[in-house]
Amino acid sequence: MRQTFDESTDPSFGPRHLPRIREAMAEQGLDALLVPHEDEHQNEYLPPANDRLGWATGFTGSAGAAVIFQDKAAIFVDGRYTLQVRDQVDAATFEIRDLVDGGVTAYIEQAARPGQSIGYDPRLHSPDALERLRHAAARAGAILKAAPQNPLDLAWGAERPAQPMAPVAPHPLEFAGEASSDKRRRIGEALAQQGAAASVLTAPASLAWLFNIRGGDVIRSPLPLGQAILNADGTARLFLDPRKVTAELPAWLGNEVRLERPEDLPGALAELSGQTVLVDAAQSSAWYFEALGAAGAHVLRGDDPTALPRACKNAVEIEGSRRAHLRDGAALTRFLHWMATEGQASPPDEITAVRKLEAFREATGALKDLSFDTIAGAAGNGAVVHYRPTERLNKRAQSGSLMLIDSGAQYLDGTTDVTRTVAVGEPTAEMKARFTLVLQGNLALARARFPAGTTGSALDALARTPLWAHGLDYDHGTGHGVGSYLGVHEGPHRISKAASLVALQPGMVVSNEPGYYKAGEYGIRIENLQVVTAPAPIEGGERPMLGFETLTLAPIDRRCIAREMLSDAERAQLDAYHARVRELVGPQLEGEARAWLEAATAPL
Amino acid sequence: MRQTFDESTDPSFGPRHLPRIREAMAEQGLDALLVPHEDEHQNEYLPPANDRLGWATGFTGSAGAAVIFQDKAAIFVDGRYTLQVRDQVDAATFEIRDLVDGGVTAYIEQAARPGQSIGYDPRLHSPDALERLRHAAARAGAILKAAPQNPLDLAWGAERPAQPMAPVAPHPLEFAGEASSDKRRRIGEALAQQGAAASVLTAPASLAWLFNIRGGDVIRSPLPLGQAILNADGTARLFLDPRKVTAELPAWLGNEVRLERPEDLPGALAELSGQTVLVDAAQSSAWYFEALGAAGAHVLRGDDPTALPRACKNAVEIEGSRRAHLRDGAALTRFLHWMATEGQASPPDEITAVRKLEAFREATGALKDLSFDTIAGAAGNGAVVHYRPTERLNKRAQSGSLMLIDSGAQYLDGTTDVTRTVAVGEPTAEMKARFTLVLQGNLALARARFPAGTTGSALDALARTPLWAHGLDYDHGTGHGVGSYLGVHEGPHRISKAASLVALQPGMVVSNEPGYYKAGEYGIRIENLQVVTAPAPIEGGERPMLGFETLTLAPIDRRCIAREMLSDAERAQLDAYHARVRELVGPQLEGEARAWLEAATAPL
Hints:
The structure is a homodimer.
Chain A: H1 13-27, E1 32-36, H2 52-57, E2 65-69, E3 73-77, H3 82-88, E4 95-98, H4 103-111, E5 117-120, H5 127-139, E6 143-146, H6 151-156, E7 169-170, H7 173-176, H8 180-193, E8 198-201, H9 204-210, E9 213-214, E10 227-231, E11 236-239, H10 249-253, E12 257-260, H11 265-270, E13 276-279, H12 286-295, E14 298-301, H13 307-311, H14 315-340, H15 342-345, H16 350-362, E15 369-370, E16 375-378, E17 401-407, E18 409-411, E19 414-415, E20 418-424, H17 429-446, H18 456-468, E21 479-481, E22 490-495, E23 509-512, E24 515-518, E25 522-525, E26 528-536, E27 545-550, H19 568-585, H20 591-600
Parallel strand pairs in A: 1-5, 3-4, 5-6, 8-13, 11-12, 13-14
Antiparallel strand pairs in A: 1-2, 2-3, 7-9, 8-10, 10-11, 15-18, 16-17, 17-20, 18-19, 21-22, 23-26, 24-25, 26-27
Helix pairs in contact in A: 4-5, 14-16, 17-18
């Protein structure tokens, strides 16, 4: 089994680890220490060696921060994690506060005393965040001080897990679809157009995409930790620990890419003296800006130049994603068949469901990893948006309720992410009504046609309007980008209430996942991945319109649908989707599962 | 008649006026001069005395700019005005270029020669715009130079119309709904919370709203030109030309508002030395920033503190707007009856239609002004979004086509803005199909319910989705804010594709005006004003939702609707709106008009 169900921290972490951290702080003359969730690579999922916030506090959510004073400490999380933080963190040790709207800066301004030194690790903070923190400290009469060595790392000492050393291997052209040399050439030209001689790339996904390599340093995503300098002429320097370099890698990278050691990076940055260097302040920490500034380079702040090209998948990647979704759809359909038969006769607990689904995916023979830990939320657990089943929280599905299963897989040809919500026993009329509203939102977004230049924020309301009309909503985004055998959350595009300036462009893969959550009772989410299609004419129209092709192939539980709430057009849209699922997934199944799929995808 | 149909400029303006401007430039040692459309008050509509761009070029659109060199000149307009500029401006004198995406800065960078001095009038440019222009000039090796006196004004000389001197009078509490002292107190508190001791207000609408006064310096909007300094304690200094001050004004303003002369303003700004002063860089020109900087004040850039409170209408203003719309709806319905009877028998030309509609509004006895020049666009003229009928362009309505009429009125109790598109003869199937798509967008936006925090950009797509699905769209925003007996275009909210950070809030009035334009053939627009309603529970729901109350009351032409395209719910929504129109407007009509309204608002 890939997924585990233990808990890697407990509330004793804070009381046990804080004294050691404070001692190390004192040795460096620090009155306080900033502990962000982010690591040196600004990853969403951290290698255990870099989960400093988790070790210091016990909190394992995907976003947060802590501030540790000698005589007090606070942890900051957003609304998604208000329940989880109370479960994981000792509230006597850490005051629990809200992360949003400058929670950390407001706290520093109020908690710091004149003359105090607040330590930080410059490798962990973006320059913009640091600037705001610096101002907050100044307003309190305190100063921010870069710690020569992170006191938390010193306190962690021998107990700290080793840095990940997963081998970095070529990602073949049959999956990548474009040679690294071609990618480097066109990104290099874009750099030149911006007047930059080079760009420092620090996002592992950028390295993976640009050099057509994959690693395994971060669980659930095949990322190689490292850095690179891409020059405007397309040549590059790639900094990877030699222990991760596989035998075939140097030849794969070719002559234009110099493979170097991480300790060579500072010297390489110093060589950029006098040059204009593009760095993304959202991806690269203040350390890079300071190092380049000290070297006399002219730092140009801008978007990571690989982010948009990476998001717009090429034809080979899109075809790969279709294949991955065919395979994944068959595995998921086998699971849904099991849930609809054995799972009805004897409702499983969440962990059993997760294991069953993983086994079906493993049986494809192509599974490289899950793309994230499967969320199986029975009844009230389904209403916890960022739920992950553990031995302690594990709950058995209840008859007359719903189970929400959000899962995905990493295959060489593509990354999947799909949520289905299934009935156990007979759902209530309220469950069916709300499931249908969520479905209507999903269908509205899936069928949208829109002109070039339209952003995800402009389309977000399409998925919410049916819920809004009934006084309901969900407190998460409607869609996130997805990588190609890369991260399951990938920018720069998204579909959400937050204003976005990034237009949806052909080849972008994005999720469509409206939901509804009734605290303590049940959760509903319907999630498909979609790829943005090129502008195409519409009969009788004047302007070509972009649209979506749905990639995910798995039946949507007809038992949860209040048929009478759907318009004829909505029914036809769902029937057509189900016919596609039947046609494409059916031939991969046999016997009972195939017969079940026929019924599960029959017209409403 | 209030509206005129002449043209105030012609293409000879450029060749005739440019030599005089260049002479005045040379006397100040300037190689070039920047001529923005904006005047000292950043108004949308200019008093004739301030239409410098019009006098220099002949172009009368609502946005644009010119750059005049000694040996060349260029005019910059956006996509809305590409036809109009060629009609109004001598292309041999002015090169015609695109305003968007930094058109002026790119031109300066390319056209200026090293060592040249480019003159500007600091009262006419925002500090941000000026900064960009300064950089562009620097890249060309040229410098930007503030002209002690605007050379264009000197060249204009005695031909320049006099500055407007319309009397400024109290706007009674029965219309304003909140005493100026209360407004000043709460805005003052908001200033204090931002750490500001005062704010310099330069937008005429801000003065009108804050002091509950109305003027008439700008045609079509009751704006008093002037400036004010509002202090955090709620006291203020108001700078108005004494010739505009009516007898009752000083007592109306009370003891807390000191009435002063415009020439006292520089001294008053100098007195702000050492204080933190809030100024809106989008409303106030660089002159204010320079004057305050020179005085040693600390300038805090931020939104005009009256903008958001002004946009959120109070109960008295909303009730006033309902009254104004009742009255205006009756006038418009009389006009629509005329169009549907006499206008069918003998189709009118555009000017006749405009005069007829104005006469119906005048007959209410309450008309203070039109809120903008009525657009009546017959056939192909209807497809020109910013059309204004003139004797030269005037066209007779054609049988088998459409006429688009966009108009509005200024009443003491409210400002209206409404567009109806009516059939002349029998419209074609295509016209009806496209009218119906526009109507579906209008209905979708009108019935939207949405949670607090939703911006206009999030709702814009609701009005476009039906058109998008058929490969159609319109190239203007979906909705703009509207003042209360103030400007017909009022921020800070809007409903448009452009990203907005301003959430829609209860009391905001906003238009709902999707359209469709077939160049050379016909234009369709359906526009109602709506007021945002307070969050209210929805039966069976969990979260209170905001929504819209439609203010505009006038029938939508049933002859243009393809009934079979509407869903049952859409038909019911339209029928309910028409029933409201019948119920509220009907009793104001008599005889044939009333009978016609009965038929025109019958269920579909």
